[in-house]
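[step 3/7] fold_predict: job queued, chain A
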Amino acid sequence: MATVSGIDVSYWDSEIDWSKVQASGVCFAFIKATEGEHYTDPTFATNWAGAKAVGILRGAYCFFHPNMDAIKQADLFIQTVKARNDNGELPPVLDLEAHDQQSNAVIIAKAKTWLDRVEQAFGKTAIIYSGYYFLKDHFSEASGEPPAWIKDHPLWIAQYPGTYTPGMQPALPKGWPNWAFWQYSETGQVNGIKTNVDLNVFNGSLDDLYRFAGLGQPPAPLSYTVKAGDTLEAIAARFGVSVSSLLAANPHLLKEGIVLTVPATHSNTSTSSGSSQPGTPMPAPSTPRTYTVQPGDNLTSIANKFGTTVAAIAQANNIVNINQISVGQVLKIP
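[step 4/7] structure written:
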């Protein structure tokens, strides 16, 4: 059985180096956007842009509270995601894990209200995230089964063996016919993330995941002929990939005239976003942006903020030690 690796992140997973995450083999990420009626995750915008910059497929999720107004929760989620002018690639997600002492009937009715409103806004059938026992105990009707309409919604099931071995399957509550995503660990380790992180798999191949996201086939690798003066950092920055993934695809030494295989992402092969056609370097902006370093900033957080890479910023500003920048320093952002 084919699967694809992914993660989900929130405020608790701060200062993520998305280039390292992508180079570790992560292909998709679910990113917390909101919770309840009023809370917006403060890292959502940075994570949303950072994951996109390296070509990781993204979906946003709302941690739902059934003791709050479902329409207000839906509207906050819609406003938060649409404020980025980028709905992501994967469908929106309703995170069901708090029952808030509400009856099953209330939880089911309010969840349906949220789903209907969000699906109308995004034009995609939303994913339902939950655990086995929550669905069994709090999302079932008198028959012991969920409402009939759940068959239209992909299931992201939380169940924690801790490690995943090909061929493993999660247990499903009565009435849930299949699963699309499986969160199998809460204590995973991924290069580029300092804290423990949730690990997931998609139930299918990479081709299946791209079709699920409505993107067709995964992009084919690009090629680039090395020119005099090129560096791996500059080539990686030009195509929006990590140096690690570029090295993994090209184990030979970098020499003038060599044709490199450039790992493809949906962002560096998309024509709709103004990116290059396959085999054509992405053009740099004619006028670099600038950014004044603030307390607590580092090059990783700044690169994620602007959807670029540490190497590109360092090269544009002649920075030798990427760990040494100063508050008040004005950086060119390529």
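[step 5/7] annotate
The chain is about 30% helix and 20% strand.
The radius of gyration is 21 Å.
exit 0
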